[in-house]
Amino acid sequence: MDIIFNPLVGGLLIGMATVIYLLSLGKVIGISGILSQLLFSKERLLPFLFIAGLIIGGSAYGVLTEQTVAFPETRSPLLLIVSGLLVGYGTRLGSGCTSGHGVCGISRLSPRSLVATLIFMTTAIITVSILS
Question: What pLDDT, in 10s, does the model give residues 44-75?
Fold first, then answer.
């Protein structure tokens, strides 16, 4: 039952948060844009609260629930840094991240977001297929 219930509830919460953010602030939610605001904008309180909520919420879920997926083996710090920089570069190149394009863009029927999400997902599927 948890296999169906947890993703369903998670998806509904993400959708609800997206709608609330759009209706209250008039902005499309996207993690890369919010992180950029936190780092480079004069208005930092709301982006800080949002990012802090992501970290606290994810950590609380990890602590309060039984984990059924094994934690991945340790990776090289250099590999993690290079990977993070590549993801950041891809986010800038694609004018947004998977949350912005995949959740908000597709729901607004944005052709650019549809293409971006198809590219994200295809690349992820190919990567997992090669590395598994």
Answer: 998 999 899 989 988 898 888 887 777 777 78
Give yes or no for a contact between 37 and 44, defined as CB atoms under 8 angstroms apart. yes
Q: Is pTM beyond 0.85 here? A: no
Assigned token pair, 73: 């083996």
How far is it, in rounded angstroms, from Cα 95 to Cα 82? 20
Count helices and strands in the chain by DSSP H and E runs: 7, 0
What are the boundaries of each domain within the chain?
Answer: 2-131
Residue written as tokens 């570069």?
89
- Nearest to residue 8, comparing CAs of 16, 128, 110? 16
Q: Which of 40, 9, 38, 16 is nearest to 107 (CA)?
A: 16
Which amino acid makes up residue 39?
Answer: L
